[in-house]
Amino acid sequence: MEDAPLPNIELTPKKLIPEILEIKQNNKSYKLLIEIEEFIMRFKIIEDDPFLGTYSRIFTMKEIKELHHVFSMFNSFQEFLDYLRDLGSKNKIEIKQTEDYISIILTVEYLLKHNIIEINLTQEDMNYKLISKQLKKEINLLNEKINDMEIKYKNNIIKQKEDNTNLIEENSNIKQRLNILEK
Length: 183
Fold this sequence. Notes:
Elements: E1 19-25, E2 28-36, E3 41-46, E4 55-59, H1 61-67, H2 77-89, E5 93-97, E6 101-110, E7 113-123, H3 128-182
Antiparallel strand pairs: 1-2, 2-3, 3-4, 4-7, 5-6, 6-7
């Protein structure tokens, strides 16, 4: 009896491992996070400071193909991601930051000339209440640690004073016994 045929497995996984492209320009380094899910590709700029906010934009494959004719040749997010990696390695990705948005500027070659494609990322709503709550929690934990350390320090001081008093008494007793023995 023959084995049943294996099921057809899609070439594009439902979720890829997030990819980070580091874009260095003008003594600043930007981290461009690209996440691919089944039907969407998310671009996100990662900042180390959470108060600066998170800028992002989500595309479908159809929207990516509509950005520029050169992208119409891509059939999957993976192909487009590989192309972005290549642009990044050739320093053909630039990040421009304004007060309201961040632009990812791609320089692509199309029909022997350079074409500039701009992808604008807008700021995501930030949950400042959640951030302040987490900061307050961290501050409370630090205050508890400081209080614990102060108590331990005070207890150590008290113990050292007791030990010193005991040593002084013991020293005095030894001197008295020595005086007695000398007499």
